[in-house]
Amino acid sequence: MSEEQIKSLENQFEARIARDEKIEPKDWMPEKYRQTHIRQMSQHAHSEIIGMLPEGNWITRAPSLRRKVALLAKVQDEGGHGLYLYSAAETLGISRDEMFEQLHTGKAKYSSIFNYPALTWADMGAIGWLVDGAAIINQVALCGTSYGPYARAMVRICKEESFHQRQGYEIMLKLSQGTQEQRDMAQDALNRFWWPALMMFGPKDEDSPHTAQSMKWKLKRKTNDDLRQQFIDQTVPQAELIGLTVPDPDLKWNEERQSYDFGEIDWDEFWQVVKGHGPCNKERMAARVNAWEGGAWVRDAAMAYAEKQQERKTKQVS
Amino acid sequence: MKAGIPLNETMKNNLYKYILGIADNSLILGQRMGELCGHGPSLETDIACTNLSLDLFGQVRSYYQYAAKIAGDDRTEDDIAMLRKERDYLNVLLVEQPNRDFAYVIGRQFLFDVYHHLFLMELQKSKDLTLAAIANKSIKEVSYHLRFSTDWVKRLGDGTEESHTRMQEAIDQLWTYTDELFHQTEADKEMVSEGIGVDVTKLKEEYYNKVAEVLAEATLQVPDLKYFQKGGKQGIHTEHLGYLLAELQYMQRAYPNMEW
Amino acid sequence: MSTKNWPLWEVFVRSKNGLEHRHFGSLHAADAEMALENARDVYTRRNEGVSIWVVESKHITASNPEHNGELFEPAQDKVYRHPTFYNLPDEIKHM
């Protein structure tokens, strides 16, 4: 294809997106669009399956049977959501195995929040309430993204995730109505997860080089800072309602903006964790690699069996 | 029990113990399967195993809620699940065996599912309408479990050389815990004579036939074993159970008398 | 490391009788049986289905969007295939 032809295709493509048309797998798309989508969708999928680990830790220790089944179902959903997203990414011509490979070799990133440890039961509350809360804000914005399979996966995920945040908030609510020890546990979890949750929206707009392109492709519908502000504004009253204190001395309602002002995020910590030096990066990766490599013989066996069955069928017919 | 028929103390105790004997199997196996969540050999398999765990915990809650009602004091399903001592758990030894590898997970599940399915088929006919109803609901879930584990026994048994070896080893190691499934406690016998309980001794032949059938299809050998382990039904467990309970009970023990 | 990866399958679910099977998504499985079981576990966890079809993705033949012009545009101006093309007297309310 000549450069001119490509330019023309690109123009048509941009026009389709501007008209809010969806892009489907076999449609022509600029290579950069494909690569950006593979990167973001696989990161998103990785975040879901790495996200299973901190909460998965507490399945065996959940304090009641009711909490146990809710947590199991939630962690299972995250596996399902990872699966939907990997499948959507596969429509762009990358296999799940390749994406795992990128994750396991550290080439692909995932949400840094999951590199923080889940230390107490209250962390199950904080993760559901804050981390899922932040994720939902991001994800709702993505339901209208331009790539069809991604948008459809997001719609499904948003629908299923609606119980996740409630599940977490209910845990916090119950703790806040409990003994002093339980209230302390809840406050401690909020203290540890508040700032990492704010970091989930990514760097400030001025430090986010991909934002402009992603907005144009509707891969992002709102900027990092807008989404972060939205999260803060909706979460602070929820904390107050259950008697918890948001650990930010600079947090203050701004009457003029009709929004909360808040303190400076520790961006050094953010980049440290992103670069692989968070408290649990190594453990999380080791757990995934173990599951994948330890499961290789199982996957091989299933393939071998399927092939034998196929041969047997063919023989019977002939 | 039909509503309104008063139970005498002995009957009550026996029924209570009988329910625990059934439910503890699901509790302990559910807990073992729950450990796997996030660590399965493929995402799809992970999700499937979690479903088994969720089914089992669902059954556990129905049984314990009923047991709590029979006990008639203020104990809850969670008290029963998490606040007993090691010797008071009545599950069979099979279900508490650890997840050594996926072949053990599948082997344990399969050897239990075949039994569980036969057992629930009979329990549906119980004179105790609550138990019959729980069995009736559970059997659909367990039919699926059996299908799932049977398929996987075949895949691993008749898959690669490595998977065959691993699956055979798992069956060989777990076989020693199968005979106990057909033992009866005193409470079991009482319940059988009341028309409430299932006479498990009558399930034994069909059990071993079915298991043998699947193993043959999976190109696996039926272990030639004459010595079997027992004790779970009397609360005498393998060393593995203590660790499992330590995790299961941790929150209730560390923070007693709180609501979650 | 695995020698061969589980192939990709497309999953179609009928959410209740009376409705058609709809494409729900895809998943990996070694064989058709496993694909069905996985589909049940992955896509009908919330009671979304009464029937499932699975088909290995490689067996699907898809039209090429580059041919959309010749495939689909000719149908756009065949307005006589639609009831609104035909004029009726106002007195006739339903036809």
Shape of chain A: globular
Biggest interface, chains and residues, is:
A-B, 49 and 48 residues
Mean pLDDT of chain C: 91
Low-confidence stretches of chain A: none
Helix amount of chain C: 10-25%
Query: What is the tally of beta strands of chain C?
Result: 3
* Count of separate DSSP helical elements of chain A: 12
Described by its quaternary structure, the protein is: heterotrimer
Structural class designation of chain A: mainly alpha
Distance between the termini of chain A: 48 Å
Structural class of chain C: alpha+beta
Discrete helix count of chain C: 2
pLDDT < 50 runs, ≥5 residues of chain C: none
What overall form of chain C do the CA principal axes indicate? elongated
End-to-end Cα distance of chain C: 66 Å
Strand order across the biggest sheet of chain A? 1-2
Strand content of chain A: under 5%
3D architecture notes:
The complex is a heterotrimer of chains A (318), B (260) and C (95). Chain A is an all-alpha fold and 318 residues long. Chain A is 69% helix and 2% strand. In chain A, helix 3 packs antiparallel against helix 6, helix 5 packs parallel to helix 7 and helix 5 packs across helix 9. The termini of chain A are far apart. The mean pLDDT of chain A is 94. With 260 residues, chain B is an all-alpha fold. Chain B has one domain: Ferritin. Chain C has 2 helices and 3 strands; from the N terminus they run E-E-H-E-H. Chain C has a 3-stranded antiparallel beta sheet with strand order 2-1-3, with helices on one face. In chain C, a hairpin with a 6-residue loop joins strand 1 and strand 2. The longest helix of chain C is centred in the middle third of the chain and has 12 residues. Chain C is elongated. The model of chain C has no long low-confidence stretch (mean pLDDT 91). Classes of the chains: A mainly alpha (318), B mainly alpha (260), C alpha+beta (95).
